[in-house]
Amino acid sequence: MKKVVFILLLSVITMNSFYAQTLKIGIKGGLNYANLTDTSIKTDAITSYHAGLIGEISLSDSFALQPELLYSTQGASYKNAIGEFKNELGYISIPLLAKINLNKSISLEMGPQASFLLSKKDEFNLNDYNSFDFSVNGGLGLKLTKSLFIQARYNLGLSEISKNADAKNSVFQLSAGILF
Fold first, then answer.
1. For residue range 24-68, what is the model confidence (pLDDT) as tens digits?
2. Where is the Outer membrane protein beta-barrel domain (predicted)?
């Protein structure tokens, strides 16, 4: 995995010297509607948040790379006869998205995401959390002005959150941001 990330970063740096592209940096934040895909128990989604930095490297009028650095809280809740239990996991997420501009306002965004577990509020008593989470993202972006944008994205976890549970992250995100 480290080799893949290194090759992607090296490719971006190399492309940077070959193309006369535009680099924009900004901030974004928004709501997460997060749940766990789990075959053994029924969980309910929680509403949480994400916030961080966004970059846009335009390679042409219709294509850009969009790296991000986000703090994102994810998890789920579980109800039984005793009460409701909540699981909230805090990640540093690094999505690297291909951004295809369908027209001047709407873009299709998709790509991989690596996340690293920073914190956990664990009422499920799942021990041995995996510190790394790999997922894929897909969604749409809408430019409101030259700098302001909104995004809707689905994040599908591909790795299990714990060695003791068959559960993966599943997150729908709504974001707003500004590029400088």
1. 999 999 999 999 997 677 889 999 999 999 999 999 999 999 999
2. 20-161
Name residue, tokens 């789990």: 38
Using alpha carbons, list the distances in angstroms from residue 43 to 63, 86, 153, 172.
38, 10, 21, 15
Cβ atoms within 10 Å, residue 51: 14
Rounded Cα gap, residues 66 and 34, in angstroms: 22
What structural domains and CATH numbers belong to the chain? 22-179 (2.40.160.20)
| CB-CB contact of 157 with 168 (8 Å) | yes
> pLDDT-derived band of residue 14, with 50, 70 and 90 as boundaries?
low
Average pLDDT, stretch 128-135?
92
Shortest CA distance to 68 belongs to which of 21, 115, 33, 107?
115
Q: Which residues contact 89 (CB under 8 A, 6 or more apart)?
A: 73, 74, 75, 117, 119, 120, 121, 129, 161, 169
Contact 89, 161 (CB under 8 A): yes
Q: Which residues pair with 168 in a beta bridge?
A: 37, 160
Question: What Rg do the C-alpha atoms of the chain give, in angstroms?
Answer: 17
